[in-house]
């Protein structure tokens, strides 16, 4: 199976000012495209060639894991955003956030703190276990909570390539701006 770069469901400038068109062009159009190209090159002629991407992430190591996970992580990240999405979680997810983090504002603070506190490159994740309990975790480089048996529902990319064009060294500002473009209906749809 050959992986393709999916077309984003919004225009490149639709997420401004949180994420600029220029960042989308580089981050999605070049960085993510490179991960997908590398993934296709690395699986060709191997046991991974016809495997689902989540299974490659669960089983592969080294360069194949890194490129498979980065390919998945960026699609998951960019498809969470919408210019006019739901600004707050509702329903069962809202109840779980209130229960596990003591409220939506506390959750957002803890999530950004975990992203800012990650040294170097990686991702901050919101995931749930089989009982629906929520966890905020840090993943270095390409790490994905699927490897730990958790189901991810939200991630912020904290690699410098995600924000440096727009925010330079101000990672906290970059992450806090993302709350303006997260579509919580998308996140809720992942909480099953
Ligand atoms: Mn990235």
Order of helices and strands: HHHHHEEEHHH
Structural class: mainly alpha
As a whole number of angstroms, the C-alpha radius of gyration is 16 Å
Q: Considering the protein shown, what is the CATH homologous superfamily of the largest domain?
A: Iron/manganese superoxide dismutase, C-terminal domain
Biggest sheet character: 3 strands, antiparallel
> In the CATH hierarchy, what is the class of the largest domain?
Alpha Beta
Q: Which geometry do the CA atoms define?
A: globular
* pLDDT averaged residue by residue: 97
Summarize the structure.
This protein is mainly alpha-helical and 192 residues long.
Report on the architecture of this protein.
Helix content is 48%, strand content 11%. The chain is mainly alpha-helical and 192 residues long. The protein has two domains: 21-78, Fe,Mn superoxide dismutase (SOD) domain (Helix Hairpins), CATH 1.10.287; 91-191, Iron/manganese superoxide dismutase, C-terminal domain (minor pseudopilin epsh fold), CATH 3.55.40.20. Strands 2-1-3 form a three-stranded antiparallel sheet, with helices on both faces. The protein binds manganese (II) ion.
Keywords:
192 residues, mainly alpha, Helix Hairpins, minor pseudopilin epsh fold, 2 domains, binds manganese (II) ion
